[in-house]
Amino acid sequence: MKKWFLVFLASICMAAGLTSCHREMVAAPPAGVRILLVDPSPSDLDGMVKNFQQRIIVVDRPVLVAVYHEEAERSRQGIARVLESIERPPLVEVETLAGALDAGNLFQKNECSDAFYRLFKSSEAAIFFGGDDIPPVAYGQKTSLLTGISTPMRHYFELSFLFHLLGGSQNPGFKPFMEERPGFVVYGFCLGMQTMNAAAGGSLHQDIPSEVYRLRYVEEVLEQESAARHRNYHRQLDPRADLFWCHLHPIRFIPDGWFVEKMKRTAQEQPLICSSHHQAVNELGKDLVIAAASLDGRVVEAITHARYPNVLGVQFHPEAFAIYDSAGARRRLSPADTAAVTLHDYLKEKNSLDFHQAFWRTFSALLQK
Questions:
Q1: CB 14 within 8 A of CB 94
Q2: Which pTM does this prediction carry?
Q3: Residue 11's pLDDT is what?
Q4: Side-chain half-sphere of 357: how many Cα atoms within 13 Å?
Q5: Would you say 39 and 67 are in contact if contact means Cβ atoms under 8 Å apart?
Q6: Which residue in 30, 251, 312, 336 has a CA-CA distance of 20 to 30 Å to 294?
């Protein structure tokens, strides 16, 4: 099958060093629903493309714009390989931004502000993905010995972009872009939700077991109820085992919150979600509201925005294509399990697959409006 020209062109740009050279060669961006994928890893990008191709996300003429800072810690070769493998819609563009970013200029007008605004004006949605820990200096804390910082420029880029979109208590005089278009869609997954909170002036628990549950050892975490664990700690004891990359635990919805009002789920539903994190929202950022929590109420599982109705951050991974892939890899939940299953089949058996499918139906409906 013939590859889309724009995708091919983007792959050339990526191989050349994540430049945005295709912008100079295309007279005008293609018409369609433009969705910003902010700093996606190769696996993030591949998964989102498949979610559109398999119609998990159903949007007319989607154009995915993968946006990076030129200093972001990403595998250019890995991203180029994903782009080269795409043989049918959606269209994928790549854009790289330049500009000095550091802990001192994130929450104000800076050298990336104009590019942020242009991207906002030319798109309908922005999605922020999972990843490693945010430098705590960005939310006014010292760095815990348990915090692992490996991609600081990526975090500065995303923190500043989200601040420009939403605003924050760090700079009350700043006018957020979304004051112009409150219905703009912003989704954040796992780290994406944490970044959303920090960008709005909130803070994080730097380690859930030690700060929230006062536990020091992996074995103590594994003795807890499954609902109180937020990543697959079995993998920490045996990383070679054929275990799921995530932990599956239930969440509870806040009555009259996003999931009940927007997604039309019942307040009593407690779906299993794919969780893989050790940090969580502590103090809420400006205008952010809790939409879901862990069953014990000690960990925030989702946040929404009081002023902008289409902003949602979730502390889990509904974007993972394995959730929807009935032919995916078979894994075990824990070393004690004898049978390996696909993530898709397990969630389906536990009546939680429909929740994830409905998650994307809601996203699709927001963009179709």
A1: yes
A2: 0.92
A3: 42
A4: 12
A5: yes
A6: 336
